[in-house]
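Run log // design_07
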């Protein structure tokens, strides 16, 4: 038995190194699937191998993209009744349990990695969430990024070798690993934000004309030219692209990352911005029956545990309105 395990162990090493043949891969796969003991044995071999080998950064990015999709399934938000929520969570559980077994993920991720490198040499890595989804990504340099709903983050295939540049469309919270030799730069709406080990939130949805950065820790340069603004903790910078105008003010920046904890919490948020956030967070289409809007600025705190109907019913106590629902479409009439 020890001799058999020794032979299988060598096949596992070959697999981790990417040098295994198709026939040997099948033998290894059959062995792992025989029983729980073999699964545990394979997991131990994998831990031993990864402890003594530094994986390629491409592999780390690909692995994070796989985890991103699993994380999205776990963090997806429902938007109506509790009965719908139960069915949805059940579907999510089946989906996650189907891919969460460690040995299967390892097999799949390595196979995907090989195919990816063969077909996509030089292509950027892209992480994305849809409406009502959130996820968390760890980049090869240790930088952690939380992605809000309807967000796309891309980074080059050679990230962390000569540069640490990422492109953002949507909203993300960054906790950047400090590396003075390779500065971290976020491009949002083609506008650069230069970072030196810091925590900050960026909002840059394509349908909006305003780019917003909120700094929690460290330093952040908003722009890379002489007109760039140097931000300090609790500074908020907004850049109106249509007017080509920047503004900066100070407030508690933590409210800008409340979404990472499943909340919408703002000391001051406009009516339009709130409803855009609700639309993305709950994956609904919100339609107003007239162009008339309110100019109220709201102080608000909402939890994802509340359905969109609950949220709008509560808002109707502040802003008189009637709400009609037809599937994903919510029609609002202001009184």
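design_07 sequence
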């Amino acid at each position: 038995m020890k001799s058999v395990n020794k032979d299988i162990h060598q096949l596992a090493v070959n697999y981790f190194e990417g040098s295994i043949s198709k026939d040997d891969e099948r033998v290894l796969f059959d062995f792992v699937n025989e029983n729980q003991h073999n699964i545990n044995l394979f997991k131990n071999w994998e831990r031993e191998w990864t402890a003594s080998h530094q994986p390629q950064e491409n592999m780390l990015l690909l692995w994070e993209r796989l985890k991103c999709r699993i994380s999205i399934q776990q963090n997806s938000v429902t938007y109506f009744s509790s009965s719908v929520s139960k069915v949805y969570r059940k579907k999510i559980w089946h989906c996650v349990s189907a891919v969460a077994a460690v040995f299967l993920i390892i097999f799949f991720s390595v196979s995907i990695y090989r195919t990816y490198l063969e077909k996509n040499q030089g292509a950027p890595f892209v992480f994305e969430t849809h409406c009502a989804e959130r996820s968390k990504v760890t980049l090869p340099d240790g930088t952690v990024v939380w992605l809000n709903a309807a967000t796309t983050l891309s980074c080059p295939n050679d990230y962390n070798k000569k540069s640490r540049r990422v492109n953002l469309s949507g909203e993300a919270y960054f906790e950047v690993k400090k590396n003075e030799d390779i500065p971290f730069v976020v491009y949002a709406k083609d506008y650069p934000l230069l970072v030196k080990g810091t925590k900050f939130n960026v909002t840059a949805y394509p349908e909006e004309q305003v780019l917003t950065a909120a700094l929690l820790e460290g330093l952040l340069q908003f722009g890379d030219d002489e007109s760039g603004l140097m931000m300090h903790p609790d500074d908020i910078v907004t850049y109106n692209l249509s007017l080509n105008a920047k503004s900066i003010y100070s407030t508690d920046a933590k409210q800008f990352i409340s979404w990472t904890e499943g909340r919408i919490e703002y000391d001051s948020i406009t009516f339009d911005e709130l409803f855009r956030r609700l639309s993305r967070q709950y994956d609904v289409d919100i339609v107003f029956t007239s162009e008339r809007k309110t100019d109220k600025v709201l102080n608000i705190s909402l939890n994802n545990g509340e359905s969109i109907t609950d949220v709008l019913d509560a808002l109707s106590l502040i802003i008189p309105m009637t709400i009609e629902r037809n599937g994903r479409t919510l029609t609002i009439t202001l009184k």
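The longest strand covers residues 164-175.
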